[in-house]
Q: What sequence folds into this?
């Protein structure tokens, strides 16, 4: 038996290693040619110290308190030279991936579908040649064919499958948008590097509030797919805001989640003045059903910078400090030059 260990480095890179039963994380990483920090490998020096807040493991009792104190242990700190997993784990490594002689994983794939699901949104489906593990909510860099440039997109598909999907903003003149709308064909080859990012779903121990703006819905689709697969008995509420009604996409998928996840609910809102949508305004104006619980809630927020700033201001104004607050800002890339899109 083996377990999947996600090593999250401080530069945002995530690498997955397979850890055999009875094997330490340090040894599993070395076997994968990832040189995690270490000096003694005996639980004496503390050089291999990291953190693990997700997964089951055993540290034994053969390490020195000078290497890992009781206080650090209560905070979720671990010694990777002593950590023996008994399930899948996520380990925070407090150094850059380059210092461990590793970096982003690379995988190639084939374009399976390109769907213009609204005037402003593109669904891209890719079949990867090899497994590309990721945590629900992370993103990957996709190289634009006929260009050396990449664009970053969050997975909207569930982890553990070679069938990958992405929800992409259709930016007029944008490098990736121009290729997808004008040139992409089924069977085209693409290269992906990653996964990356810290906007992944943590263990669900309290109600969850999800706030999505535009194509910032993508990582939440991946999170909800994961929750459906693993089960969730705590309230989860999504507020999904867009600028115009035509920007509302994947509502059929969200409706399906309301049937498949007993405690999931969502509302949509539209900020455009000329909209006839029943809920006008921004996400902060439609928090009536949000499980704020005086702060006993985990909040996930993904959207453009003004939305992120307004939500942060909302919580400050309400004097509510969520148990945890995870957010990711995104902005469309600058339009491509004519030479790049010709």
A:
């Amino acid at each position: 038996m083996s377990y999947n260990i996600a090593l999250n480095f401080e530069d945002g890179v995530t690498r997955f290693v397979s850890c055999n039963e009875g094997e330490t994380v340090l040894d599993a990483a070395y076997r994968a040619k990832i040189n995690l920090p270490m000096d003694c490998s005996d639980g004496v020096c503390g050089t291999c110290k990291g953190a693990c807040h997700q997964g089951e493991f055993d540290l034994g009792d053969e390490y020195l308190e000078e290497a890992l104190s009781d206080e650090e242990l209560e905070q979720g700190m671990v010694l990777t030279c002593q950590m023996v997993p008994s399930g899948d784990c996520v380990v925070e490594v407090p150094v850059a991936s380059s210092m461990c002689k590793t970096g982003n994983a690379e995988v190639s794939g084939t374009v399976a579908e390109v769907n213009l699901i609204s005037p402003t949104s593109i669904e891209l489906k890719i079949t990867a040649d090899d497994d590309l593990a990721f945590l629900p909510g992370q993103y990957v860099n996709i190289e634009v064919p006929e260009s050396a440039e990449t664009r970053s997109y969050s997975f909207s598909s569930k982890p553990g499958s070679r069938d990958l999907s992405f929800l992409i903003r259709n930016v007029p003149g944008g490098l990736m948008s121009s290729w997808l709308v004008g040139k992409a064909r089924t069977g085209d080859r693409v290269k992906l590097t990653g996964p990356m990012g810290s906007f992944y779903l943590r263990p669900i121990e309290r109600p969850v509030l999800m706030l999505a703006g535009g194509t910032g819905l993508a990582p939440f689709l991946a999170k909800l797919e994961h929750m459906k697969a693993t089960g969730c008995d705590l309230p989860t509420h999504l507020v999904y805001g867009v600028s115009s009604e035509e920007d509302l996409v994947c509502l059929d998928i969200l409706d399906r989640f309301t049937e498949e996840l007993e405690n999931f609910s969502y509302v949509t809102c539209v900020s455009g003045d000329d909209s006839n949508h029943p809920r006008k305004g921004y996400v902060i104006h439609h928090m009536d059903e949000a499980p704020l619980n005086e702060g006993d809630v985990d909040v996930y927020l993904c959207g453009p910078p003004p939305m992120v700033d307004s939500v942060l201001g909302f919580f400050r104004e309400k004097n509510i400090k969520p148990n945890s607050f995870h957010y990711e800002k995104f902005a469309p890339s600058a339009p491509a030059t004519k030479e790049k899109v010709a």
In short: The chain has three domains: 2-100, 105-197, 208-329.
